[in-house]
Amino acid sequence: MIILIAFGTFLSTLLGGWVALRFKDKLHLVLGFSAGAVISVAFFDLIPEAIALGSGRFAPDIILQFTAVGFIMYLILDRLVFFHAHHDDIEAEHSAHLSHPRRGTLGASSMALHSFFDGVAIGLAFQVSASVGSVVAVAVLVHDFSDGINTVNVILKNKGGARFAMRWLFVVAIAPIIGATATLFFSLQESSLAIILSIFAGFFLYISATDLIPESHHAHPKIITTVMTLLGMLVLYLAILFAGV
Question: What is the DSSP string of 56-110?
Fold first, then answer.
């Protein structure tokens, strides 16, 4: 049952990636929607879930501090390790061109890890009860479609090709299956999972704030991209709300 549901997340992620590739000529609109979706996943799914899981050990403000740690960690990796450059300088622009695929890889790998823990969350939830597992599974299926879109967008935006995007899309899509399978062999304390989810929330907030939102607004009408961002937030919020999360 767990593996079957995880396979459903695989299909959901691939579908989201196909949508991003199919409409890449309207990428600024997809990026705008994707930015809103990432924000909603962080604010309305990951952080609340992390607070709930860590309630027995951590106060909500501690969970939010771990979210800040995740944001800062991604900032350091982006600026110091992956050489985020200013495009106003010609040499820096050339350096940014070389480093962009690395930044895309960083973004996609963080989503792969997040998807892995989606699978872990499904497996652990079913260890609690079938009803809890079903609710978590619905929530994961809902936002894994967004993960597929976001994975392709991060790669394409950072100068990666369609084939490279498809490779990472497959990695992100199969990650929940691996995560769910792994839970058959180990158990993880809820407090530890709470920290992991909160850190990844910080990752996604950084990706949205510094990559997806600015790029969706670059050289494109601001009103329509803003509407798409708000629409992305609304759609994912309602999906998570109706999923019972």
Answer: TT--HHHHHHHHHHHHHHHHHIIIIIS----TTSHHHHHHHHHHHHHHHHHHHHH
